[in-house]
Fold each of these.
Amino acid sequence: VQLQASGGGLVQAGGSLRLSCTASGRTLSSYAMGWFRQSPGKEREFVAAISVSGGTTYYADSVKGRFTISRDNAKNTVYLQMNSLKPEDTAVYYCGSHRSGWGTMRSRLEYTYWGQGTLVTVSS
């Protein structure tokens, strides 16, 4: 599975962005999916995840209430809507496909395939 993340950019604090994750080689509808982010000098951290059906979502406390993960299996795409962005949200954002759909959903070790990342920069 090759994942492609897009939608990053430069935005002012308080603004919004929507990230997209698409796949080639296999349909995303077979996988639970997650978004992670990584800032310079920091480990990749969990942001949000969504079940195969889209009926269950998971969020890091730091983004709960501001970010929304969703999926459109017909379009083979997973989204991350990011509102009320803060400078501390600045990072490279990665989408990943979960190895099984069962687990904490919050550990990067549970994810098998990753996209190349898209940079989000939030200015103060």
Amino acid sequence: QVQLVESGGGLVQAGGSLRLSCAASGRTFSMYTMGWFRQAPGKEREFVATVSGSGGRTDYADSVKGRFTISRDNAKNTVYLQMNSLKPEDTAVYYCAGRIWAYATKVEDFGSWGQGTQVTVSS
């Protein structure tokens, strides 16, 4: 299992931007599909975005499409989530997750998780 550590969360006004980072341990990072998920208070964890091991394929939730961008740097064992035009409804704990080999987008398909980073968007 890869070990994951998120950073970059914080408080931002609506319309602002944040960039989340997720640093991974190990030498097999490029074999992992990586994803960002989020969980708001009282709600289930939900899919935000995923990127394939090579970075050639990405998927986004409809709610963030056009505003968020997922990317990865395999040389640095890091995956990023650039979040622009943030809205109050984007407020949640954001989790980085990894799944070896097969591409996936569902929460239940990911076996490695970070501890989460809080993103709060004020109106």
Amino acid sequence: QVQLVESEGGLVHAGGSLRLSCTVSGRAFSTYTMAWFRQAPGKEREFVAAIVWPIGSTYYADSREGRFTISRDNAKNTVYLQMNSLKFEDTAVYYCAAGPPSPSPYSWPRSYEYWGQGTQVTVSS
């Protein structure tokens, strides 16, 4: 059984930073493609970033590139999302997801098999 456990989110002021983490238990973490998605109230779940196995390439939604950074530590079975210069519109529940090697497309939620419980990030304006 694969389980994904996200760190607690939080409340930050606009312009601030926050780092989320997601620890995976179960099967070999290093072979998963890992991604972050988010969902704001009344909106669909949207892609934030992915780090693809085995290539290791990183991908970002256009509006997040440059502000967000996804990384992974295979020794700790953990994927991170560093979020800088946060904006009010970044407020959402953030989910980490684990999927197969090189999922296609990597930005679709249905490409991922396992999901965390979600963590709330609130950015005050």
